[in-house]
Amino acid sequence: MGKTLIEKILANHSDKEEVNPGEIIDIAIDTRVARDFGGANVVKNLENHNLSVDNPEKTFFTFDTNPGGSDQKYAANQQYCRLFARRNNIKIFDINKGIGTHQAIDDGLVWPGSTFVSTDSHSNIMGAIGAFGQGLGDKDMAAVWAYGSIWYKVPPSVKLNFQGKRPADVTAKDIVLNLLSRFGASTLLGTAVEFTGESIEKLSLDERITIASMGTEMGAISLLFTPNNHILETLKQRSGNEYQMIQADDDAQYREEYQINIEEFEPMVARPGHPHDDVALKSLKKTKIDSAFIGSCTNGRMEDLRVAAAILENRKVAPGVVLKIVPSTDAIWQQAMEEGLIATFKEAGVLVSNAGCAGCAAGQVGQNGPGEVTISTGNRNFAGKQGKGEVYLASPAVVTASAVAGYITTPDQIPEEPMVFDSEPIDTGKDTAGKSKTQEKKKPTVVEGKSWFVDKDDIDTDMIFHNRYLHITDMHEMGQYTFDNLEGWEDFSEKAQPGDIIITGKNFGAGSSRQQAVDCFKSLGITCILAQSYGAIYERNAINAAMPVLTYDPEALQEIDYQNGDKVRVDFINGKITNLKNNKTAAIDPFYDVQHDIYQRGGLLNG
Hints:
By secondary structure, the chain is an alpha/beta fold. It folds into three domains: 5-264, Aconitase, domain 3; 268-413, 2-Layer Sandwich (Aconitase, domain 3), CATH 3.30.499.10; 446-601, Aconitase, domain 4, CATH 3.20.19. It is 28% helix and 18% strand. The strands form six sheets. The protein has a seven-stranded mixed β-sheet. A five-stranded parallel β-sheet has the order 4-3-2-5-6, sandwiched between helices. A five-stranded parallel β-sheet has the order 16-15-14-17-18, covered by helices on one side. The radius of gyration is 23 Å and the shape is globular. The two termini are 38 Å apart.
């Protein structure tokens, strides 16, 4: 039987000729990267367990989440990593280089058919060139740095067959927003998605990067594109290396195949709160904005900057509106300067920053304040992700046109005079934070405790543990910030008690690869989490941290007549949940073997 693209890549990096969906295998990792906020914890994990680096030539740091070192704790973490790198001959892409995943593509650190991991949840951007990329937590990454391989569950494959001709006004960003509107954040959860069709074949490398970068927002393991001759030549020109074609076999088997008519696609905008809450742009035209942002690993490439410059030529950003542009890499920044784009931006009144992740990370250019309405090319607009205001997601063309108009619009409908808005009062409400509660726990396989039913789907990692706390490396300090960005649950850390159990909905832990979103529950003494499904990176982080996470069918709660706050018993091994109020029992999914092994060892890095 033929292999899908992901199966071919994983088999080539394992000791098996064939791999099957659901099978757990060990895979060798070609390139291993830690970023500045996660890097310090990776180093701590190595040092605390007396582990050395397997192969420094395959191991890198990328300082892209705070390229200015503008926060003292970020700066301290960066220097901590620099010192470790010097001792171990590890190369650093320092604060002047830009986004690490983009550096890896452009510098040839990753190639079609290769394997790449990083503490960046958008590492699956490597699907743009037909490579495997995965975001990992700091414990997972420390294990890769030490051993050169990781355990991995082979994902099922899905194919999207695109038919028709792409409409002229539909950009790569619009393609992925249309797909998010159709599939949401969990339909493709945990799958490797292959793109095929004539319109896909014509996509440039930059366009493929835009789409692949938002696979995380779709819940997918990866959005994979088969590289064609043009893509291989583009990669050769940038890295100087020759690459071989890799593609799925003609007789490969897919869990599902979808037929997509791209001619039905139209310009889209994601409304504030969720990348998958997408509507036709025409329904939001003339929505007032305060600021605009072009950048992030989704849209900071040369093609994006050229589009913005063409619209801004002989125009100005609207009075009272701030347009911020952040190239994804320093090489792109330099090219933009050579082509005169930077001059065009400055003449139009744009704030241009040095290369990096920008608005996706706290403390950088691109954040907004309370009450501020932003239109952004970022990949996420979770509440609080890019600041305290509201964030709409759109293409670089729409973002630029809107910055000139003062409201959401398209390049062909920019008014001669921008709309000027009256000032509005700003709500400067305070954040809520509780006290840290920690307690050492044994490793029982049956636990009992009061349950908290968080009746929400798609709870992302910014809701669980916001990025403004990412500088925290001491787990004992993390608990107090748990759920403080989840509406209605801001005081959870004050109410939770050691031994409590969390029950929640689908796609829990979507989004970032941050380990803190797991460790904050350990800090509070939460004994286990039950969800209908998890974000792929989050589930790995929890398992590797010996945090019990299990899945259940919602009918199980009906079988035990469950009510929020009931005391329940959870059996990890036999897969049972019991309501101690009435002694009714229902089946849940038990631990699988590798999860049980890691749990009993107290974590992935423990012997």
